[in-house]
Amino acid sequence: LMVDLEQRLGHRLKLDAVASATLGGLSKTADGLDAIRWWQQASQAKQSGDKQTWADRLGDIATYCCHDVRVTMRVHEFGVRNGHVKYLDRNNREQQVPVDWKL
Q1: Radius of gyration for the chain, computed over Cα atoms and rounded to the nearest angstrom
Q2: Which residues of the chain are under the pLDDT cut of 50?
Q3: What count of other Cβ atoms lies within 10 Å of the Cβ of residue 78?
Q4: Quick one: which of 2, 45, 74, 98 could link to 53 by a disulfide (CB 3.0–4.6 Å)?
Q5: Which H, E and C letters describe the chain, residue by residue?
Q6: What is the pLDDT of residues 80-95, one digit of tens each?
Q7: For residue 27, what pLDDT is reported?
């Protein structure tokens, strides 16, 4: 989905820029840097034997990933139904890009 949008537009978009415009303000719960930090914290906690922090950080990662999948699925469904998705450009203006996605 994101690769297809990049090819159509000639530049990369963030999922959040697509989701917030297409889905009326729905956005991601965190960003990839948070997930990397949580993974590092989980690794450190595992090495130190801190099972609670280890479990908490893995839970954070799982929640983040699941939410991203749901958001991506909803953007895809919108594109299938409407033949386009929206995104916020670098100037925070809403734009539209045609798509020909199938289920």
Answers
A1: 17
A2: none
A3: 20
A4: 45
A5: CHHHHHHHHCCCCCHHHHHHHHCCCCCCCCCHHHHHHHHHHHHHHHHHCCHHHHHHHHHHHHHHHHHHHHHHHHHHHHHHHHCEEEEECCCCCEEEEECCCCC
A6: 999 999 999 999 999 9
A7: 74
Residue with tokens 């925070």: 92
Residues in the chain: 103
Which pair of tokens denotes residue 25?
């303000």
> In sequence order, which residues have a C-beta less than 8 Å from that of residue 2 and are 6 or more positions away?
12, 13, 15, 18
pLDDT attached to residue 26: 76
Alpha-carbon gap, residue 20 to 47, rounded angstroms = 38
> pTM, whole model, 2 decimals?
0.85
Query: Which residues, including other chains, have CB under 8 Å from residue 92's CB and lie 6 or more apart?
Result: none
pLDDT at 43: 95
By the 8 A CB rule, do 102 and 31 touch? no
